[in-house]
Amino acid sequence: MVPIHAAIVWQDRRTAERWRALKDDRLEPMVSEKTGLLLDPYFSATKIAWILDNVEGARASAEGGRLAFGTVDTFLLWRLTGGGAI
């Protein structure tokens, strides 16, 4: 497995539009209930959605089971264990 895109860090706000759409659709209570998190572009879900929508081949790879998402710490564990930590 190789990275499909550069890391999108917590400060990155390119997903703010998707966050705003979820908020405008009044989905904040559902997101909070299911995840325990506030709806905020800081978190990974909107960043993953952005990659699926904007990186060529990402959605097809995900649908084919050839794409994994994770945070920097999970990527480092995956690399250090040769993929044994997945």
Question: Can you walk through the features of this model?
Answer:
With 86 residues, this protein is an all-alpha fold. The protein has one domain (16-80). Helices cover 50% and strands 0% of the residues. The chain is built from five helices and no strands. It has helices at 16-24, 28-35, 44-54, 58-63, 72-80. The N and C termini lie close together (12 Å). The mean pLDDT is 89.
User: What is the overall number of helices?
Assistant: 5
- Described by the principal axes of the CA atoms, the overall outline is globular
The total strand number stands at: 0
Number of domains: 1
Reading the helices and strands in chain order gives: HHHHH
Tell me the radius of gyration. 14 Å
Distance between the termini: 12 Å
β-sheet strand percentage: under 5%
The average pLDDT value, as a whole number, equals 89
**Uncertain spans:** none
Helicity range: 40-55%
Q: How is the biggest beta sheet arranged?
A: none
Which structural class do you get from the secondary structure elements? mainly alpha
State the gist of this model:
Helices cover 50% and strands 0% of the residues. With 86 residues, it is an all-alpha fold. It is globular, with a radius of gyration of 14 Å.
